């Protein structure tokens, strides 16, 4: 059995002095023209992003939605294998949430494709999360998300007086028997990020929203880490940083520069 996910992540964070997660969301309609004729353009794009950013990244986070077709699954397998070749842990951003055989199959699929960790929805309770925990994957539970609509449900107060996101955090802490649970908490809600960190001081966070969504970098670095371990993700802000360029080299050099810049900004507050 390999080392637990968060132990491997801690080693990677220390090795590259970075908590940056590079989100790989390869939209076909934004494929650079110089890759359009490639047999697997999403794989070609992802490989070049990894080449440009891996020295500044603690992990990569491919979004499953952009790979869920026949060619996409091939591209995702290649992307995960290539990331592992660069010693990069892979978090599959799938946001799965179901029960029974469906949840078990989702979890098996994540393990089979080689991902090290996955994002899941807690809305259906522990039995929807348990199959992923049982696969010895790192499991990031959606808690207080970075999207504008996250407040619609997650900020609602329960009869106990606590907001939904605090209850989710408390449950995730209870589910952490194997020490492989983390939370997804967006940088676009810094007050909630701080409150959740106070409630669960030992859970690592995956913090999206510091790139194109404009979330708070200082809060992400200050409250996103547990004993120095956690991830702060940027997707569009890194992988499409070179959109103004028509040539391959400057296009992906811009991605590398964006990842390096985010690493430096986060390290100011770590």
Can you describe what's shown?
This protein has one domain: Alpha-Beta Barrel (TIM Barrel). The chain has eleven helices and eight strands. The chain has helices at residues 5-16, 41-53, 70-85, 100-113, 126-134, 151-154, 164-174, 190-199, 217-223, 236-239, 248-267; strands at residues 20-24, 59-62, 91-96, 117-120, 138-144, 181-185, 205-207, 231-234. Strand 1 (20-24), helix 2 (41-53) and strand 2 (59-62) form a beta-alpha-beta unit. Helix 2 packs across helix 11 (248-267), helix 7 (164-174) runs parallel beside helix 8 and helix 8 runs parallel beside helix 9. The chain starts with a helix and ends with a helix.
Strand order, sheet with most strands: 2-1-8-7-6-5-4-3
| H-E string | HEHEHEHEHEHHEHEHEHH
Oligomer: single chain
Q: Tally the helices: what do you get?
A: 11
The average pLDDT value, as a whole number, equals: 95
- What is the CATH class? Alpha Beta
Helix content: 40-55%
CATH superfamily: Aldolase class I
The low-pLDDT segments are none
How large is the radius of gyration? Answer: 18 Å
Largest sheet: 8 strands, parallel
SSE order and pairing:
Blueprint: H1 5-16, E1 20-24, H2 41-53, E2 59-62, H3 70-85, E3 91-96, H4 100-113, E4 117-120, H5 126-134, E5 138-144, H6 151-154, H7 164-174, E6 181-185, H8 190-199, E7 205-207, H9 217-223, E8 231-234, H10 236-239, H11 248-267
């Amino acid at each position: 059995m390999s080392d637990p996910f968060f132990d491997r992540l801690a080693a990677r964070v220390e090795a590259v002095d970075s908590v940056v997660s590079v989100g790989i969301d390869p939209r076909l309609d934004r494929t650079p023209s110089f890759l359009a004729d490639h047999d697997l353009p999403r794989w070609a794009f992802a490989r070049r992003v990894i080449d440009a950013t891996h020295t500044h990244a603690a992990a990569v986070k491919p979004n499953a939605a952009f790979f869920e077709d026949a060619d996409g699954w091939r591209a995702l397998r290649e992307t995960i294998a290539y990331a592992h070749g660069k010693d990069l842990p892979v978090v599959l951003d799938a946001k799965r949430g179901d029960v029974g055989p469906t949840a078990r199959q989702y979890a098996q699929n994540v393990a089979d494709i080689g991902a090290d960790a996955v994002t899941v929805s807690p809305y259906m309770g522990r039995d929807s999360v348990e199959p992923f925990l049982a696969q010895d994957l790192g499991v990031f539970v959606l808690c207080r998300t970075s999207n504008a609509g996250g407040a619609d449900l997650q900020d609602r107060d329960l009869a106990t007086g606590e907001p939904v996101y605090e209850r989710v955090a408390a449950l995730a802490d209870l589910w952490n028997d194997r020490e492989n649970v983390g939370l997804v908490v967006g940088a676009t809600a810094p007050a909630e990020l701080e409150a959740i960190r106070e409630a669960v001081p030992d859970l690592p966070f995956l913090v999206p929203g510091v790139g194109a969504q404009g979330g708070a970098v200082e809060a992400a670095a200050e409250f996103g880490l547990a004993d120095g371990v956690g991830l702060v993700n940027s997707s569009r802000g890194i992988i499409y940083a070179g959109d103004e360029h028509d040539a391959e080299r400057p296009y992906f050099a811009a991605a590398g520069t964006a990842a390096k810049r985010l690493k430096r900004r986060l390290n100011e507050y770590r």
